[in-house]
Amino acid sequence: PQLLAVRSHSVFALGNAFALANRAESEECLRVILMCVSALVEANGVYLEPVLQAIAEQLPPLWERAGDSVPIHSCLLSVLTHLIMKMGYSTVENSHVQAVLFPLLDYCTDISVVNRAETLLEDGLRLWLVTLLSSRVATMGSKLTSMLPRLEMILRSCLEPHLSLKVLQFNSILLGKQVVEPLGEFLREMLVTLTSRVHVKEKASGDEMEDDGGNSGGNSKETDVGTMRDAIAALGFADILMQVFPDIGFSISSPAIGKVMSFICSGGQDGQRLSLTIPLLEVALSAFGRMVWINPNSFDEIFTQT
Fold first, then answer.
1. Are 250 and 294 in contact (CB under 8 A)?
2. Residues 184-200: pLDDT tens digits?
3. Count of CB atoms within 10 A of residue 77's CB?
4. What is the pLDDT of residues 231-263, one digit of tens each?
5. Is 249 within 8 Å of 238 (Cβ atoms)?
6. CA distances from 30 to 132, 282, 283 (A)
């Protein structure tokens, strides 16, 4: 009932919000207004499709006003993400949306700019991913292809791999294996690196204090979560790549999967142990099953070594 009540007034509220945005003089006022717009779009979804064109027409002037403001860019990211998630390809293919969408993606993923990776890259990659999920090759193929060099730069910098690998995955599904073929050797090494980070050395309770001079505290937990998340993302990417493109997928993925399975079976080596969680084990076994399906000899090769 509450949501229905909101929906009955949402078009009027959006009109007022955009009118206020055009008159707002301070960055903070504009940020709050855009947060309201984002919340209204998220709450209403497809119910706003009849006024999509009117919403889209308001976005280019807001993009022009954003300048170098991180909070305003962040709010625009949120508005576009919710619009595309709720209304799909009709939003992505709207010319007014595209006038903001692609310049905003370019701005947020330009890691050559100081502090850009720390401030907007993660949200930019999420918007990129949502855009891919709502795109059709016939209408969006050329625009998506033009963004691949930027994606390669992000991947080679190993920034936000849990998202950048997803973006690469859906680009390859949409555009074909030519997206991953030129990156084959690099991806092979990257997957090995990301999955090897879950092999952590046994530590006594006081070791962390010595390692970081007493400053590790919460940072070690955040690092553990990040590395585990990236390892799971790497194995998930390997699994999907082998499913979609068996030959090149096996070539890229098998070294990383083989090393992870060897560690799981051996219980670790050189005083190290494998930090196992249920999500990691599930995705590792799924990827291993795909690998054995493609090449049954993989089973004997891995378990002979262990």
1. yes
2. 999 999 999 999 866 54
3. 22
4. 999 999 999 999 999 999 999 999 999 988 888
5. yes
6. 28, 45, 43
Question: What is the rounded distance in angstroms from the CA atom of residue 175 to the CA atom of residue 111?
Answer: 24
Residues 6+ apart with CB under 8 A from 48: 10, 11, 14, 41, 55, 86, 87
Supply 257's token pair. 């999967």
Summarize the chain as % helix, strand, coil (round to 5): 80, 0, 15
Q: Count Cβ atoms below 10 Å from residue 41 Cβ, excluding itself.
A: 25
The single residue listed with the structure tokens 């092999």 is 199
DSSP for 4-41, written as a single string: HHHHHHHHHHHHHHHHHHHH--SHHHHHHHHHHHHHHH
Structure tokens at 30: 């504009």
pLDDT classification of 207: cutoffs 50, 70, 90: very low
Helices first, then strands: H and E counts in the chain:
17, 2
- Type of residue numbered 74: S
Name the residue type at position 204: A
Report angle CA 98, 48, 128 to the nearest 5 degrees.
35
For the record, the structure tokens of 183 come out as 């990156």
Amino acid at site 100: V
Q: Inform me whether the pLDDT recorded for 289 exceeds 90.
A: yes
Give whole-number Cα distances, 142 to 63, 135, 145, 175, 199, in Å: 23, 11, 5, 10, 41
Q: Would residue 271 be called left, alpha or beta, if left means φ above 0 and alpha means ψ between -120 and 50 degrees?
A: left
CA distances to 194, 222, 241 from 98, in Å: 34, 36, 29
List all residues 6 or more positions away from 215 whose beta carbon is below 8 Å from its beta carbon. Answer: none
Report how far residue 190's alpha carbon sits from residue 157's, in angstroms, rounded to the nearest whole number.
Answer: 10
In the DSSP assignment, the letter for residue 183 is G
